[in-house]
């Protein structure tokens, strides 16, 4: 299309965390409401939204190569909007470096996309990285579509300022969405077919609100209310911060049946000096104590975490402490990363940046340990009976894929449909997935 035409088709590509996936879906809904249709698979779109992530180096580089790749053989480009956290952090630089980008829109401003598209279609280049007082959520269309699993952003932003992290700068301060809006959005998602909802927040367990009686409640209160929605079968939440892990939320794991036995609780490192330099404001011991309490409330809970290796100044002995923590915690799965200096964060200018080769070696050792734990956790599921939520068809005829309560991927053959809750027996276990045989339809 030529730059002066209104786009008829769009494509949204999201990178990074689940909240970006949620935002990407909301942008798609907003564009559809404007009469812009999703581009068919394999076809050129008139408008492309790159919904970017800034958490680690390669993420930003990927954006520039994606922009380059959007150029067509005849030299034209679609109308390109860069959204998400790179847009927020490096909007000006993107505008200067990539002339084919016509719109830069931050994570708190994307409800303004329709006006921006009108301006861009008229030949202007527009940037909106405001963090406006009005919330984007009020301006977004109501939810009408959902698969069997859905994300629901309940909290956004971060006030924790870990010294390595860009999120407080790209997403802004901690804000909780109002209770009534969340119950409403959850009900609409369930009406549209969601059986499982994952509550999202950069610090989801920092969510606070007021219920209809005017009482102050935390995330556990919200979870208890959502559990009362009859056709909602499963509730999950992510990502939590150890400091916001309240006794109420821990207790909910033992009391709310629909709350799945899974907790993602990032720790980042296993040494108190490193944690302090990271400004994590918890210790190894206080973290392990939380895991102990959660296990007491829900003995079968699957635990997950995030780790960074090679934070500036991390010694070999301090890294060994991370391996010890991994063994002490007994994770079901984890994410681990090499430290990446982010512009504007305090850690980026700290002394003793760790050489890449050292980080590579540490990451390999850490991942070997984490993989060992993950396989052991999966093997311990052998012979168990559990319920899976059927998410999609598998590769072979008659094969389906779903998730166990512990977030393991399970494949099985059955007479099933997407959205079914099926009882299965686990018959094989690999590092990344389980095999099962169907038993009978579980009561929803
Ligand atoms: N709010 C969440 C996670 C946000 S980012 C929390 O605090 O737990 C997701 C993960 O990316 C972090 O947990 C951390 O492990 C990793 N991460 C963040 N900044 C990073 C950096 N500069 N380099 C490497 N990994 C980083
Ligand atoms: Fe980043 Fe720390 Fe906030 Fe998590 S808690 S988003 S790691 S600053
Ligand atoms: Fe990335 Fe922003 Fe999420 S930096 S991880 S998209 S909050």
UniProtKB/TrEMBL annotation:
<comment type="subunit">
    <text>Monomer.</text>
</comment>
<protein>
    <recommendedName>
        <fullName>tRNA-2-methylthio-N(6)-dimethylallyladenosine synthase</fullName>
        <ecNumber>2.8.4.3</ecNumber>
    </recommendedName>
</protein>
<keyword id="KW-0949">S-adenosyl-L-methionine</keyword>
<dbReference type="GO" id="GO:0046872">
    <property type="term" value="F:metal ion binding"/>
</dbReference>
<dbReference type="InterPro" id="IPR002792">
    <property type="entry name" value="TRAM_dom"/>
</dbReference>
<keyword id="KW-0408">Iron</keyword>
<dbReference type="Pfam" id="PF01938">
    <property type="entry name" value="TRAM"/>
</dbReference>
<keyword id="KW-0479">Metal-binding</keyword>
<dbReference type="InterPro" id="IPR007197">
    <property type="entry name" value="rSAM"/>
</dbReference>
<feature type="domain" description="Radical SAM core">
    <location>
        <begin position="144"/>
        <end position="376"/>
    </location>
</feature>
<comment type="similarity">
    <text>Belongs to the methylthiotransferase family. MiaB subfamily.</text>
</comment>
<dbReference type="GO" id="GO:0035597">
    <property type="term" value="F:tRNA-2-methylthio-N(6)-dimethylallyladenosine(37) synthase activity"/>
</dbReference>
<feature type="binding site">
    <location>
        <position position="53"/>
    </location>
    <ligand>
        <name>[4Fe-4S] cluster 1</name>
    </ligand>
</feature>
<feature type="domain" description="TRAM">
    <location>
        <begin position="379"/>
        <end position="440"/>
    </location>
</feature>
<keyword id="KW-0004">4Fe-4S</keyword>
<dbReference type="InterPro" id="IPR006638">
    <property type="entry name" value="Elp3/MiaA/NifB-like_rSAM"/>
</dbReference>
<keyword id="KW-0963">Cytoplasm</keyword>
<dbReference type="GO" id="GO:0051539">
    <property type="term" value="F:4 iron, 4 sulfur cluster binding"/>
</dbReference>
<feature type="binding site">
    <location>
        <position position="85"/>
    </location>
    <ligand>
        <name>[4Fe-4S] cluster 1</name>
    </ligand>
</feature>
<dbReference type="GO" id="GO:0005829">
    <property type="term" value="C:cytosol"/>
</dbReference>
<dbReference type="Pfam" id="PF04055">
    <property type="entry name" value="Radical_SAM"/>
</dbReference>
<dbReference type="InterPro" id="IPR023404">
    <property type="entry name" value="rSAM_horseshoe"/>
</dbReference>
<dbReference type="InterPro" id="IPR038135">
    <property type="entry name" value="Methylthiotransferase_N_sf"/>
</dbReference>
<keyword id="KW-0808">Transferase</keyword>
<feature type="binding site">
    <location>
        <position position="165"/>
    </location>
    <ligand>
        <name>[4Fe-4S] cluster 2</name>
    </ligand>
</feature>
<dbReference type="InterPro" id="IPR006463">
    <property type="entry name" value="MiaB_methiolase"/>
</dbReference>
<feature type="binding site">
    <location>
        <position position="162"/>
    </location>
    <ligand>
        <name>[4Fe-4S] cluster 2</name>
    </ligand>
</feature>
<keyword id="KW-0411">Iron-sulfur</keyword>
<dbReference type="InterPro" id="IPR005839">
    <property type="entry name" value="Methylthiotransferase"/>
</dbReference>
<comment type="function">
    <text>Catalyzes the methylthiolation of N6-(dimethylallyl)adenosine (i(6)A), leading to the formation of 2-methylthio-N6-(dimethylallyl)adenosine (ms(2)i(6)A) at position 37 in tRNAs that read codons beginning with uridine.</text>
</comment>
<dbReference type="InterPro" id="IPR013848">
    <property type="entry name" value="Methylthiotransferase_N"/>
</dbReference>
<feature type="binding site">
    <location>
        <position position="17"/>
    </location>
    <ligand>
        <name>[4Fe-4S] cluster 1</name>
    </ligand>
</feature>
<feature type="binding site">
    <location>
        <position position="158"/>
    </location>
    <ligand>
        <name>[4Fe-4S] cluster 2</name>
    </ligand>
</feature>
<dbReference type="InterPro" id="IPR020612">
    <property type="entry name" value="Methylthiotransferase_CS"/>
</dbReference>
<dbReference type="InterPro" id="IPR058240">
    <property type="entry name" value="rSAM_sf"/>
</dbReference>
<feature type="domain" description="MTTase N-terminal">
    <location>
        <begin position="8"/>
        <end position="122"/>
    </location>
</feature>
<keyword id="KW-0819">tRNA processing</keyword>
<dbReference type="Pfam" id="PF00919">
    <property type="entry name" value="UPF0004"/>
</dbReference>
């Amino acid at each position: 299309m030529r730059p002066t035409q209104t786009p008829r088709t769009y494509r949204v590509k999201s990178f990074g965390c689940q909240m970006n996936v949620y935002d990407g879906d909301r942008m798609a809904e907003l564009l559809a409401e404007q009469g812009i249709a999703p581009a068919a698979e394999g076809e050129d779109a008139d408008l492309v939204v790159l919904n970017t992530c800034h958490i680690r180096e390669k993420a930003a580089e990927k954006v520039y190569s994606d922009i380059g790749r959007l150029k067509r053989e005849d030299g034209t480009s679609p109308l390109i909007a860069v959204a998400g956290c790179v847009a927020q952090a490096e909007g000006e630089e993107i505008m200067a470096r990539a002339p084919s980008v016509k719109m830069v829109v931050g994570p708190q401003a994307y409800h303004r996309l329709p006006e921006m598209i009108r301006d861009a279609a008229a030949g202007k280049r527009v940037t909106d990285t405001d963090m406006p007082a009005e919330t984007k959520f009020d301006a977004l269309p109501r939810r009408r579509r959902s698969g069997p699993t859905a994300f629901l952003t309940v909290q956004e932003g971060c006030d924790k300022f870990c010294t390595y992290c860009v999120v407080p700068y790209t997403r802004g301060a901690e804000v909780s969405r109002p209770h009534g809006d969340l119950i409403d959005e959850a009900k609409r998602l369930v009406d549209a077919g969601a059986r499982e909802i994952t509550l999202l927040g950069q610090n989801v367990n920092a969510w606070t609100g007021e219920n209809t009686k005017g009482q102050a409640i935390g995330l556990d209160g919200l979870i208890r209310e959502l559990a009362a929605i009859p056709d909602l079968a499963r509730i999950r939440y992510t990502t939590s911060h150890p400091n916001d892990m309240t006794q109420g939320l821990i207790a909910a794991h033992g009391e709310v049946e629909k709350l799945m036995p899974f907790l993602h609780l990032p720790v980042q490192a296993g040494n108190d000096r490193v944690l302090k330099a990271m400004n994590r404001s918890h210790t190894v011991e206080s973290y392990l104590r939380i895991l102990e309490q959660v296990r007491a409330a829900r003995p079968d809970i699957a635990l997950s975490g995030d780790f960074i290796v090679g934070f500036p100044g991390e010694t070999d002995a301090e890294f060994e402490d991370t391996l010890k923590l991994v063994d002490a915690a007994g994770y079901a799965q984890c994410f681990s990363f090499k430290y990446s200096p982010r512009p504007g964060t305090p850690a980026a200018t700290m002394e003793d940046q760790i050489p890449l080769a050292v980080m590579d070696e540490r990451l390999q050792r850490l991942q070997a340990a984490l993989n060992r734990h993950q396989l052991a956790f999966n093997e311990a599921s052998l012979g168990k009976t559990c319920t899976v939520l059927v998410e999609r068809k598998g590769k072979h005829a008659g094969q389906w894929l779903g998730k166990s309560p512990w977030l393991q991927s399970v494949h099985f053959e059955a007479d099933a449909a997407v959205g079914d809750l099926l009882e299965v027996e686990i018959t094989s276990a690999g590092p990344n997935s389980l095999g099962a045989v169907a038993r009978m339809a579980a009561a929803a």
